[in-house]
Design a protein that fits this description.
The complex is a heterodimer. By secondary structure, chain A is an alpha+beta fold. Chain A has helices spanning 6-17, 29-61, 77-106, 212-222, 228-238, 276-284, 307-318, 323-339, 348-356; strands at residues 113-120, 123-127, 133-135, 137-141, 145-152, 157-161, 166-170, 176-181, 186-192, 205-210, 263-265, 271-273. Chain B has one domain (31-554): Cytochrome C Oxidase, Chain A. In chain B, helix 6 runs antiparallel to helix 7, helix 7 packs parallel to helix 9 and helix 8 packs across helix 13 (393-423). The chains are: A alpha+beta, B mainly alpha.
């Protein structure tokens, strides 16, 4: 093979060793998605073959040489009905099959483990409930349903894991969710697939799938020392949420204990189910979400809390099952107010810093 | 292949291009720039869209060159983003949308319906000027630093985060939109009001039907795009907040508005191309189009359904699952008329007497590639598979199969088909057949690997990509060079044929359309006297009788 140029040779070698034709199937949904995909490939191939056979066959049979005089035909209702109904039927099968798959991918099971994901130009930040923070990577265990709650802090991004066959847009100002159950340990691509500016193609990372044991070890080895709910609790205190939401009989804000998942009657007469998205709205845009019986006195926190901060608050409220936790914050708020230089603990800037910076030793339990 | 041919040319020794024709009527630049003649305006359009096609094509070449290697080494990421954005903007708004309607449609529709001109000749000229103004603005945008929004102008990226020339690019598209609205309006009025005596709706050539359907889409859809772009410009300049969640706006609203135009827009692009295929397949198989009525109505069905499928671009964007369900179902329904057309064209060949001149080869290319493009569209229209395939190279491949494999093939087919009518001269047959073949091969090499890349998950609009995708990208770039040759050849030999091509005579293809029953190139008034349509469309027996009569009367 000495007559092949070394560059070409190297390319061929590289190509043969590095030639992927189909992505790995690493989630429970992947084989199901691929089944539909291959069904569609099959239908396409059959359809294409029919069209090509018709064109080539007729071209040979009825070329001018063989068939100098054309025979005029008007059409045929029967034939036309055939190629209307058969494609329609096939398309409807694909529609139903696809819809079943779609609902499965976008309807997380109730017991899924939640991981919060923030997209921003140009990185992915993942927040585990246990306080593990990751950038441009996501560690997940096999055999467990994992739900991602995704938001973007700036422009549209899209969180794509080809090996899992799942993808979800990260939208500014709105939570989206997707879930998967990883099956095969390994490292897979994580892409941002929605064009998001200069370094769009650098907004990539790794999804690391681990066995449950390895995952547990990773969780222990990567924790920041306090859980996401604890971060939220600290933020709750530093933003003085507890000044009103303090469970006292004369409190100016509603009691937030056990509010998550409840049905809440709003001042405008609507009833809402309190979920992540509602909590986010109620914090950032409180005037539109007044609980019945309370005055519209809550200021907006739009632009004052980072999306990670909102996630921490949401996670805190989700797990808030006793008054005691709130009482605790009342005790701890006094501390930062007079203990350090950043006296304006209540100013927006500091609040924002509270959302992002996780200074060590600041939280006492 | 070439032994049997339908081409019948006049005796080259005695034949002359008619002295009086629309090209020779008046001379001088001003006579072109102030013309009201639809054929001259079509010629102006043909020259200008070819110019933009080559700019867009050069940008495509740069994209493929950059993607030869996984790193972004030829261009910085920002430059790459600008290059693919300009490629998309120029190709979509300055080539694909006006390609068949504004050039070929402009040229033949008045003749096909037996009229002297379009109903509103000055509006027609205005529409070309708007196109040129818009094109100039787009070139200005490019010369002063370009724009990196992608052709989709997605907010809030375009409104709040980019420092490039978003406003001039948006306004360029805004102006180009009016050019296309005026063209559509002109066609609708002409087709309703200017048909010659005897030209009933069901005697219209299918090219007219499909352009009529596309015109309706242009007139109803484009204003929405115009409004959307104005909102983007206002949001960017004075922060009105409609798309800004921090001000109570909705960033998804932009996508709804944008795709409300831009999905019908792909039918604006493809429908006229389908019209070309109907004419060509019928002419070169000497057969009436199989199921004329079904093909005519399927164009209208595509136009109507086309307006109700826009949210299939947003299945992963957090629209409600049930909305996704409805839009997916409607998408499946819109796929059916396209399938009907493909089979009707295939069965037009049945019992025909087929010859394989260049327009027919391009039409065959169209049918094969459009079938693949259409079927892969179903992959994306089904919600479950869309999740994995959307926003990847699968979308890129699908779109290019429909637009380049479909529309561009149809455009080239049409240009070759009507070239003799337009210029009075034939293009050289052998080399153009070769060019059609090269285009077909190059096209498949370029875009088929992208389906596999997309299935592997390679995202679109990436300046750099993981190394395992390189082999397929090299294939694709190699194919693009072949495709480039396929597009350069027609430019060369068509230019050559302007002077050296054989004299075509009135009706070299023995076609039945009214445009073929007048001299080539036609008179400024198209016909010496307004024709009377006394037969069905594609009536080859009528044509044969007609010719016998002539022979008898001359003899």
């Amino acid at each position: 093979m000495s007559h092949i140029s070394p560059v070409l040779w190297q390319f061929l070698v590289k190509w043969l060793t590095n030639f992927a034709l189909f992505p790995p199937e690493a989630s429970k949904i992947a084989p199901q998605a691929d089944a539909l995909y291959f069904f569609m490939v099959l239908v396409s191939l059959v359809g294409l073959t029919i069209v090509v056979l018709l064109i080539v066959g007729f071209s040979i049979l009825y070329s001018k040489k063989r068939h100098p005089e054309a025979v005029q035909i008007e059409g045929s209702t029967l034939l036309e009905a055939t190629w209307t109904i058969i494609p329609l039927g096939l398309f409807l099968i694909m529609f139903v099959w696809g819809a079943l798959l779609y609902f499965r991918i976008y309807t997380p099971p109730a017991n899924a483990m939640n991981i919060y994901v923030v997209g921003k130009q140009w990185m992915w930040k993942a927040e585990h409930p246990g306080g593990q923070h990751e950038i441009d990577s996501l560690h997940v265990p096999t055999g467990r349903a994992v739900q991602l709650t995704i938001i973007s802090q700036d422009v549209f991004h899209s969180f794509s894991i080809p090996a899992f066959r799942v993808k979800r847009e990260a939208i500014p100002g709105r939570y989206t969710t997707v879930w998967f159950e990883a099956t095969t340990p390994g490292t897979y691509h994580l892409f941002c697939t929605q064009y998001c500016g200069t370094n769009h193609s650098q907004m990539i990372g790794d999804v690391v799938v681990m066995t449950p044991d390895d995952f547990r070890k990773w969780l222990q080895g990567s924790t920041s020392g306090h859980s996401l709910a604890q971060d939220g609790e600290r933020l709750f205190a530093s933003l003085s949420c507890n000044a009103c939401h303090n469970t006292r009989p004369d409190a100016r804000g509603p009691n937030l204990v056990g509010v998550y998942g409840s049905h809440l009657a709003l001042a405008n007469g609507q009833t809402v189910t309190v979920d992540d998205a509602y909590l986010r709205q109620a914090i950032l845009n409180p005037s539109q979400n007044i609980t019945q019986g309370y005055a519209p006195i809550m200021p907006t926190y739009q632009g004052q809390i980072s999306e990670e901060g909102v996630f921490a608050l949401v996670e805190y409220l989700k797990n808030l099952d006793s008054d005691y936790r709130i009482q605790q914050t009342l005790n701890t708020t006094v501390l930062p107010a007079d203990s350090e230089g950043k006296a304006g603990g209540q100013t927006p800037a500091a609040a924002k810093a509270g959302g992002q910076g996780r200074g060590p030793g600041e939280v006492q339990q | 292949m070439s032994a049997a041919t339908i081409v019948s040319l006049p005796d080259q020794a005695t034949a002359r291009i008619p002295k009086m024709n629309f090209l020779s009527k008046e001379n001088g630049l001003l006579s072109w720039l102030l013309t009201g003649d639809h054929k001259r305006i079509a010629t102006l359009y043909l020259i200008s869209i070819t110019f933009f096609f080559f700019i867009g094509g050069a940008l495509a070449g740069l994209i493929r060159l950059e993607l030869l290697t996984p790193q972004s080494d030829l261009m910085a990421a920002d430059t790459y983003n600008k290059v693919f954005s300009m490629h998309g903007l120029i190709m979509v708004f300055f080539f694909l949308v006006p390609s068949v309607p504004a050039t070929i449609g402009n040229f033949v529709i008045p003749m096909m319906v037996g009229a002297k001109d379009l109903a509103l000749p000055k509006i027609n000229l205005l529409s070309w000027y708007l196109y040129i103004v818009a094109g100039g603005m787009m070139l200005y945008t490019m010369a002063t630093g370009g724009v990196d929004t992608g052709w989709t102008f997605t907010t809030p990226l375009s409104t709040h985060y980019l420092n490039s020339n978003v406003i001039s690019a948006g306004l360029a598209v805004f102006v180009a939109g009016f050019s296309s609205i005026f063209t559509g309006l002109n066609f609708i009025v002409t087709i309703h009001k200017m048909r010659c005596p005897g030209m009933t709706w069901f005697r219209l050539p299918l090219f007219v039907w499909s352009n009529y359907a596309a015109s309706i889409l242009m007139v109803l859809g484009t204003p929405v795009l115009a409004i959307t772009l104005v909102l983007v410009v206002l949001e960017r300049t004075v922060h009105i907040g409609v798309f800004d969640p921090a001000m109570g706006g909705d960033p998804l609203l932009f996508q709804h508005l944008f795709w409300f135009y831009s999905h019908p827009a792909v039918y604006i692009m493809i429908l006229p191309g389908m019209g070309v295929i109907s004419e060509v397949v019928s002419t070169f198989s000497r057969k009436r189009v199989f199921g004329y009525t079904a093909v005519a109505f399927s164009s209208v069905a595509i136009a109507v359904f086309g307006f109700f499928v826009w949210a299939h671009h947003m299945f992963i964007m957090g629209i409600s699952n049930y909305a996704a369900l409805v839009f997916s179902l409607l998408t499946m329904l819109v796929a059916v008329p396209s399938a009907i057309k493909i089979f009707n064209w295939a069965f037009t060949l049945y019992n025909g007497s087929i010859t394989f001149e260049t327009p027919m080869l391009y039409a065959f290319g169209f049918m094969g590639l459009f079938t693949i493009g259409g079927m892969t569209g179903v992959f994306l229209g089904a919600t479950g598979t869309d999740i994995h395939l959307t926003e990847t190279y699968f979308i890129v491949a699908h779109f290019h199969f429909v637009m380049v494999g479909g529309m561009l093939m149809a455009f080239l087919s049409g240009v070759h088909f009507w070239w003799p009518k337009w210029t009075g001269r034939m293009y050289p047959e052998k080399i153009s057949q070769l060019a059609a073949l090269i285009t077909f091969i190059g096209f498949n090499f370029t875009f088929f690997p992208q389906f596999i890349l997309g299935t592997l998950g390679m995202p679109r609009r990436y300046a750099a990509y993981p190394p395992e995708f390189q082999a397929l990208n090299v294939f694709s770039s190699a194919g693009a060079t072949i495709l480039g040759v396929g597009y350069l050849l027609p430019i060369l030999y068509l230019t050559w044929s302007l002077k050296y091509g054989e004299i075509a005579g009135e009706n070299p293809w023995q076609a039945t359309g009214l445009e073929w029953q007048t001299q080539s190139p036609p008179l400024t008034e198209n016909f010496p006297e307004i024709p009377i349509m006394d037969h069905e469309a594609y009536d080859y027996e009528w044509l044969a009788r007609q010719q016998q009569k002539e022979v008898a009367s001359v003899g």
